[in-house]
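Bumping my old thread because nobody answered last time. Still need a sequence for this structure:
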């Protein structure tokens, strides 16, 4: 049974998630419910349910929002078409898009203006990919894997490559290598963010020493799903769960060393019960495995810099 717990460091909240949650928190403190949010503010079931209980309403279409209502755009960003639809309904928008996602939008917009075709490396259907593609929908093709690259039809325009921010570092390197082979003159931006990179390096470090790895994060959280894949790529069994209640104690059988981490949208409070449970099962040593120290912070949107008035 487990005797040692390795805690990946960094793990859990990134600066973009902290900012998005802070934005919705402040709006809910200032304004009467309901406050609308376009898409889940961050991809975590627990966070979203907590906000729902406080009066946030999450929508997937601007049609669902009453004229003139307050709406917060999620950390994953939105397409210009969504911005325009919100403007047409005179919605009062606060944009909680992570600044690192906004940077990808700006790169995409500029490349399209400069006459490039865009290859967007990312997962089809993910909120962030939909938002970025919307910057230049007629010029953008989404590719996920090396196979997708070999299936691409040629084009006459030069190629510009951007990526989703939360991809697997290793898989993306392979996809980008395939793009480079196919389009040697392509201009390539690798937009995988610092938080994704650091969390993947940290989970790899614990997985190399652990007998089993637990990743806390929701199934629709791209970076959490990637963390489980990175851990499993070291041949250590790895499981993604939303919380303690989804852990099967059989996973710990024969496992002396357990690794634990969490995706960028996961609050620490979801890890505490797992740590306590492991202590009860016999863990006596808890060791942080630190691969990076993060100091990134993003400022609030201007509309929210004023002091919060508590109800
Ligand atoms: Fe921003 Fe990266 Fe966090 Fe996404 S994972 S919100 S891009 S810092």
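Sorry it took so long. Here it is:
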């Amino acid at each position: 049974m487990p005797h040692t717990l390795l805690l990946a460091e960094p793990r859990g909240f990134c600066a973009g998630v902290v900012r998005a949650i802070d934005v919705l928190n402040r709006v809910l403190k200032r304004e009467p419910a309901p406050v609308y949010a376009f898409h889940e503010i961050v991809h975590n079931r627990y966070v979203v349910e907590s906000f729902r209980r406080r009066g946030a309403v999450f929508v997937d279409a601007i049609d669902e929002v009453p004229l003139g209502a307050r709406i917060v755009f999620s950390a994953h960003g939105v397409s210009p078409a969504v911005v325009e639809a919100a403007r047409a309904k005179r919605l009062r928008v606060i944009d909680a898009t992570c600044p690192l996602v906004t940077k990808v939008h700006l790169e995409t917009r500029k490349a399209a203006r400069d006459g490039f075709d865009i290859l967007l490396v990312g997962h089809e259907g993910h909120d962030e990919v939909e938002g970025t593609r919307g910057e230049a929908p007629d010029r953008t093709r989404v590719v996920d894997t090396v196979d997708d690259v070999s299936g691409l039809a040629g084009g006459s325009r030069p190629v510009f490559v951007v990526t989703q921010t939360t991809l697997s570092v290793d898989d993306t390197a392979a996809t980008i290598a395939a793009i480079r082979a196919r389009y040697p003159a392509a201009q390539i931006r690798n937009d995988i963010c610092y938080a994704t990179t650091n969390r993947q390096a940290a989970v790899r470090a614990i997985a190399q020493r652990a007998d089993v790895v637990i990743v806390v994060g929701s199934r629709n959280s791209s970076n959490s799903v990637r963390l489980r894949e990175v851990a499993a790529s070291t041949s250590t069994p790895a499981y993604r769960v939303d919380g303690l209640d989804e852990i099967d104690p059989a996973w710990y059988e024969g496992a002396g060393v357990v690794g634990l981490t969490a995706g960028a949208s996961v609050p620490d409070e979801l890890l505490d019960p797992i740590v306590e449970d492991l202590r009860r099962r016999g863990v006596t040593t808890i060791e942080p495995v630190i691969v990076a120290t993060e100091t990134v912070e993003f400022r609030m949107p201007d509309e929210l810099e004023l002091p919060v008035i508590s109800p």
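The longest strand covers residues 4-9. Let me know if any region looks off to you.
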